[in-house]
């Protein structure tokens, strides 16, 4: 089968940063595994980090990619959620070979049914970002519309893939949404998704909130550089508020700054459930099915903004370069092997 992979970690503009490969089709499935014929994949910051230059070596080759949509072609002996022929979308697992291949093996508990009114490209744009946004808001910060409607949330880096979904979910939950953006096109994008206010993450968040007449915010979802935004987040979070971040720390921060306000800080990593096979691992199947229903009822706007076809080295390099530039809006997708 065809695949796009790498044999060494190189800058994206290096000649061999990606290679077109012919590899063996997967043939061993665990009891709850699906074999999926991949129709489309999307590129996320995690792909950039995995591919970027590093000292470690690759024994043979490595296939990256996590987001995917496709068709189930085989099922494991204990599968009960899907059957052959089902159209699915999912975000995969860190410990398994990636989705940038014609066929991919994935545990059915982290797979959802593809929205019926959406093509494979648009579906591939959603899993990782929608799972991250959903888990951040509802599983980490426990936002509940019945008791939290009217509260405020600040979403830092609102125009990216996760922010694009989080803005919409937060509005559905009755929150007042303040999101950050700095360019005209990204400001226009997040306003179209329902953000009530937009502020610039390059300037003081606390000062800009004050100019909006807000002393602070009840929730913060940080999607860019935890340590860069830490002091400002600690300043503007309301007493007994909740903060969630999806970006790793590169240097220590003062966690004690949250004690006086009894603030809860949460990490969100979408891959946790699959990595540790947590007892609630099937929750991701349920979330993705919920996202599919929101799409089918036109409550959630698709986040695909750029599509390349076919899935090959040339287009994979374009997609990685675009994400790496920091100027992408929404999601970048590659579709169809040829």
Topology, element by element:
Layout lengths: L1 E4 L13 E4 L10 E11 L1 H7 L16 E8 L11 E4 L12 E5 L3 E3 L6 H5 L2 H14 L4 H4 L3 E5 L4 H12 L3 E5 L3 H9 L4 E3 L5 H7 L5 E6 L3 H11 E9 L18 E4 L4 H5 L6 H14 L7 E5 L4 H13 L5 E5 L3
Parallel strand pairs: 8-9, 8-11, 9-10, 11-12, 12-13, 14-15
Antiparallel strand pairs: 1-2, 3-4, 3-6, 3-15, 4-5, 5-7
Helix pairs in contact: 3-5, 3-10
Family: Belongs to the zinc-containing alcohol dehydrogenase family. Quinone oxidoreductase subfamily.
Organism: Enterococcus silesiacus
Keywords: Metal-binding, Oxidoreductase, Zinc
What do these coordinates show?
Keywords: Metal-binding, Oxidoreductase, Zinc. Belongs to the zinc-containing alcohol dehydrogenase family. Quinone oxidoreductase subfamily. This is Zinc-type alcohol dehydrogenase-like protein. InterPro entries: ADH-like_C (IPR013149), ADH-like_N (IPR013154), ADH_Zn_typ-1 (IPR014182), ER (IPR020843), GroES-like_sf (IPR011032), Lipid_raft_assoc_Zn_ADH (IPR052585), NAD(P)-bd_dom_sf (IPR036291), Quin_OxRdtase/zeta-crystal_CS (IPR002364). With about 350 residues, the chain is an alpha/beta fold. It folds into 2 domains: about 1-125 and about 275-335, Quinone Oxidoreductase, Chain A, domain 1; about 130-265, NAD(P)-binding Rossmann-like Domain (Rossmann fold), CATH 3.40.50.720. The protein is about 30% helix and about 25% strand. β9, α6 and β10 (about 195-200) form a beta-alpha-beta unit. The longest helix is centred in the middle third of the chain and has 14 residues, at about 125-140.
């Amino acid at each position: 089968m065809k695949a796009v992979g790498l044999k060494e970690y190189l800058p994206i503009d290096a000649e061999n940063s990606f290679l077109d490969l012919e590899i063996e089709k997967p043939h061993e499935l665990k009891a709850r595994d699906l074999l999926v014929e991949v129709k489309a994949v999307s590129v996320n910051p995690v792909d950039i980090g995995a591919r970027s230059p590093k000292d470690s070596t690759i024994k043979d080759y490595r296939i990256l990619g996590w987001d995917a949509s496709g068709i189930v072609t085989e099922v494991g002996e204990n599968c009960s959620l899907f059957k052959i022929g089902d159209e699915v979308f999912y975000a995969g697992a860190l410990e398994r070979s990636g989705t940038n291949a014609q066929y991919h093996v994935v545990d059915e508990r982290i797979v959802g049914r593809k929205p019926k009114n959406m093509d494979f490209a648009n579906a591939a744009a959603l899993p990782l970002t929608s799972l991250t946004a959903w888990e951040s808001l509802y599983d980490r910060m426990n936002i509940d519309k019945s008791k939290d409607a009217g509260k405020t949330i600040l979403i830092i880096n609102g125009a990216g893939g996760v922010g694009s979904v989080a803005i919409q979910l937060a509005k559905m939950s009755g929150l007042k949404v303040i999101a950050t953006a700095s360019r005209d096109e990204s400001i226009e994008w997040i306003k179209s998704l329902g953000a009530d206010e937009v502020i610039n993450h390059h300037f003081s968040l606390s000062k800009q909130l004050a100019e909006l007449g807000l002393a602070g915010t009840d929730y913060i979802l940080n999607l860019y550089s935890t340590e860069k935004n830490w002091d400002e987040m600690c300043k503007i979070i309301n007493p007994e508020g909740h903060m969630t971040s999806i970006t790793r720390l590169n240097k220590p921060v003062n966690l004690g700054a949250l004690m006086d306000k009894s603030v809860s800080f949460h990490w969100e990593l979408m891959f946790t459930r699959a990595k540790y096979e947590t007892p609630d691992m099937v929750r991701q199947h349920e979330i993705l099915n919920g996202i599919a229903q929101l799409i089918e009822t036109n409550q959630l706007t698709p986040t695909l903004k750029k599509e390349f076809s076919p899935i090959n080295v040339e287009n994979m390099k374009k997609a990685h370069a675009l994400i790496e530039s920091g100027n992408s809006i929404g999601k970048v997708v590659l579709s169809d092997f040829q």
